[in-house]
């Protein structure tokens, strides 16, 4: 294996052309493609023998399909991050969201006929690189157990929290804004069913996903959650029992204090929707009556918004590294000293309820 490789990858797709495109794109980006599989059984065999850092996975394959591959990997304890590469249709969108909830690392849409491969290659590289990094991190040897704590020494805190100043806003129930990216669908699938309805003044959610897939995510979350969760179409009212999810391919803005609109402005930092834009709009309309929750994700989307929330007197909760698929977005906010609490995912529902009840 070349010393300069960025990671080893197995490519699984029933289309010979797509396997060729994926493999060549990955090799051009510096990855070592250690095997190609045309069906799920062959993909699993390659994963067991080659033990790649990452697998790219088509969901619609003959025999054992992509969902079967994901479930078998989990059942057999094969901790190989999977980047789903899927075409979009209503059926494929729902299946891709199910795959993310089953533990797939991330999702990328297959290039459409006539599209250039440059943008697809950039996205594929970004997501596979992040997945390979997580894989290598988890394969590091377990560090030795810490020495017993000296009597009288303060315990290492499991959470980071700061004193609660009185909110500088009006004291009305806050608008809850949830921002997330890589690993978000799975995190949301665990978080949203545990949140009550009504919740604060209402909920706005920004999840980085390709256009067409967020509708399926909203429907899946809605089926399991007390809150009514829908993909925003523009014009909806912000209501205490409603959670509006930004659609892939559009920025989510506030038209006024109580309603939303969609924007087709340029991507910001390669992202559309961009959580920072939504958060800033909420701060502009609601001042300190904002609770920002930043979950797992690559990059630093949410950091600029967190600065605005903190300046207005709002509150900020971020997910702890121990439960994040990628500790990027939460780390950016925590390292900037803006988080009021850094909590594992399973502690966030109670913390959110406590914050909106103040």
Write the layout of secondary structure elements.
Elements lengths: L7 E5 L3 H13 L3 E6 L2 H11 L3 E4 L8 H10 L6 E5 L3 H12 L4 E4 L8 H21 L21 E2 L13 E6 L3 H8 L10 E6 L6 H11 L3 E4 L10 E4 L5 E6 L2 E5 L11 H12 L3 E5 L8 H10 L2 E5 L9 H7 L5 E3 L4 H9 L2
Parallel strand pairs: 1-2, 1-3, 3-4, 4-5, 7-8, 7-13, 8-10, 9-10, 13-14, 14-15
Antiparallel strand pairs: 6-15, 11-12
Helix pairs in contact: 2-3, 4-7, 8-9
Residue-averaged pLDDT? 89
Oligomer designation: single chain
Strand content: 15-25%
Helix and strand sequence: EHEHEHEHEHEEHEHEEEEHEHEHEH
Radius of gyration: 21 Å
> Could you give the count of β-strands?
15
Number of helices: 11
Percent helix, as a range, is: 25-40%
CATH topology title of the largest domain: Rossmann fold
CATH architecture title of the largest domain: 3-Layer(aba) Sandwich
Q: State the strand order across the main sheet.
A: 6-15-14-13-7-8-10-9
- SS content category: alpha/beta
Domain count: 2
Q: Shape from CA axes?
A: elongated
């Amino acid at each position: 294996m070349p010393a300069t490789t960025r990671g080893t990858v197995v490519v699984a797709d029933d289309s010979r052309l797509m396997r060729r495109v994926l493999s060549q794109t990955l090799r051009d980006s510096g990855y070592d493609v250690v095997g190609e599989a045309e069906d799920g059984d062959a993909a699993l065999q390659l994963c067991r023998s080659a033990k790649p850092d990452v697998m790219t996975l088509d969901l619609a394959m003959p025999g054992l399909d992509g969902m079967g591959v994901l479930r078998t990997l989990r059942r057999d304890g094969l901790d190989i991050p999977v980047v789903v590469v899927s075409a979009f249709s209503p059926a494929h969108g729902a299946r891709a969201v199910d795959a993310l909830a089953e533990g797939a690392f991330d999702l990328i849409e297959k290039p459409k006929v006539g599209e250039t491969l440059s943008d697809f290659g950039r996205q594929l590289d970004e997501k596979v690189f992040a997945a390979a990094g997580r894989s290598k991190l988890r394969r590091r040897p377990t560090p030795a157990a810490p020495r017993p704590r000296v009597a009288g020494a303060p315990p290492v805190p499991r959470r980071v929290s700061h004193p609660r100043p009185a909110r500088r806003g009006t004291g009305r129930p806050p608008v809850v804004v949830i921002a997330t990216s890589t690993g978000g669908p799975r995190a949301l699938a665990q978080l949203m069913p545990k949140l009550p309805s009504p919740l604060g003044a209402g909920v706005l959610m920004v999840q980085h996903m390709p256009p067409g897939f967020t509708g399926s995510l909203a429907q899946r979350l809605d089926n399991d959650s007390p809150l009514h969760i829908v993909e925003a179409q523009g014009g909806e009212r912000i209501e205490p029992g409603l959670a509006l999810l930004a659609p892939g391919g559009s920025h989510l803005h506030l038209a006024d204090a109580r309603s939303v609109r969609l924007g087709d402005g340029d991507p910001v930092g390669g992202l559309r929707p961009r959580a920072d834009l939504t958060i800033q709009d909420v701060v502009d309309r609601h001042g300190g009556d904002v609770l920002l929750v930043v979950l797992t994700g690559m990059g630093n989307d949410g950091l600029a918004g967190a600065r605005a929330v903190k300046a207005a007197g709002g509150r900020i909760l971020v997910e702890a590294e121990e439960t994040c698929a990628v500790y990027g977005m939460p780390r950016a906010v925590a390292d900037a000293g803006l988080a009021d609490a850094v909590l594992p995912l399973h502690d966030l529902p109670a913390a959110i309820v406590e914050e909106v009840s103040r």
